[in-house]
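Protein 1 of 2
SEQ + STRUCT:
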Amino acid sequence: MSTHQTVEFLPRPEGRIAYTVTGTGPLVVAVPGMGDLRSTYRDLVPPLVAAGYRVAVTDLRGHGDSDTTFRTHGDVATGQDLVALVEHLGGPAVLVGNSMGAGAATWAAAEQPDAVVGLVLLGPFLRDPAVSAARARANRWLYRVTLARPWGAAAWAGFYSSLTKGRKAPWHAEHVAALRTSMREPGRLRSFRDLALALTHAPVEARLREVEAPAIAFMGSLDPDFSDQAAELAWIEESIGAQGHLVPDVGHYPQHQSPEVVAPATLAFLDGLRSSAGAHGWVARG
């Protein structure tokens, strides 16, 4: 994404959420997954803007340029931030989310249906993985140890690369270096660890029946976060009526591992929403 974009801030009860806005037209709001940065969407934003959409990309609480003062983290908190940003920018909007960001966007669609006209879900977590209680305790211990100073930033950068199985963006190494640098900033590793320890997607799964917004979902065929990627995608299709795409040779980040698949399919989805909304439907009011 462009380095000359102006970073803006949305005040929230516990701090400020950073975001950028590019383009004009109907509003699209994108949010990264846990441990990621706004630049994860650098290959998706330009084609959307060129097609006549206004695209806002926000950082998670404690990530990127957002404040590290937040005490509350997770899908619900992020979903509330998304609803607040849509209201601030003059929605309604299509929400784009990766990983836990997809869960947060889906929760927001259930919580505030008038604000969300569509969902674009990438490597989506809409429920907790099926693991034993012992494995869950081990995972929490692992987060506490791995995401600690002084090795936490490097450990996460390495793990992020392991999630990017298959094809990689030409700028993959640059992005991973930026993640490592960001996590070394004061307070960011602590915020990330707090999120990882608190994260559950149960509140999202509990509200899936309330989701009325049309959705499109992209799942990487090599995504290591899911033991059966096709089965998880089929469950998402059934649960919220999503249009599913299993993207070959891609891990957890379809938006930058296979933008030549994600961007055209997303544009077709958005254009369909725009056509069905009519002249007085999904328009930018900001």
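Protein 2 of 2
SEQ + STRUCT:
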Amino acid sequence: MAMEIRYATNPTETKTYDTERLRQEYLIEGLFVPGKLNLVYSHVDRFITGGAVPTTEPVLLEADKHDMGADYFLERREIGIINVGAQGIVTVDGTDYVLENKDGLYVGLGNKQVVFKSADAANPARFYLSSTPAHKNYPTQKVAISEAEPQHLGSITNSNERTIYKYIHLNGIQSCQLVMGMTLLKSGNMWNTMPCHTHNRRSEVYFYFDMPEDGVVFHLMGEPTETRHVVVRNEQAIISPSWSIHSGVGTSNYTFIWAMAGENQEFSDMDAVAMKDLK
């Protein structure tokens, strides 16, 4: 297991960052390495973002005792898992959960052993992970994409026709603070979250995937009057602090997983930014 530490930043300082520094602070690369678990611990709402690719051997979700101060990963945390690869199995304290592509699983505080396995080592599962601090136990629960609550938004006219699938939220799988789901853009659509917003009461992490090898998303971030962009490629994530917008346009349609944490779990709690105010 490898865990990288990222510290929190502020909008005044971020205005001075060049491209390389923006990428160092906010972009998460190299999540998926065969046979390994990679994690990034951010001091922004204490998010842990990760990826696990089990091949011939299972991969164990372990705690970094030095950085987490815990004997096991979920001692004081909860986690959301979405499989973006081939069929896989997540074993939680001896119980197996089979996840097909785009299926999700919530695992609550207090579960001591989480193990990732692939049904076929030659065509492995790719488990994307989002974890936040927790204060009580909620039941472990699987949700298939066919069972997730869908919300259809946008239009082909605005190049943002998309379906949002909510997995972990107030009216779905219950959690302490983690809110998690996935957005699929329809063919011919490239924009997400535009018009954009901020939400001062919580942060968010976007994970982009289902992109062609030569495809990119120009992810927009920063204060509404001080926007910047970061070029994001397939299976990369980007951290969005509460003061930052989080929007993007791709060279083709794509899919992204969003995860939020903070003061509340209201999906609609956001501060809209008028198009005229963007700079």
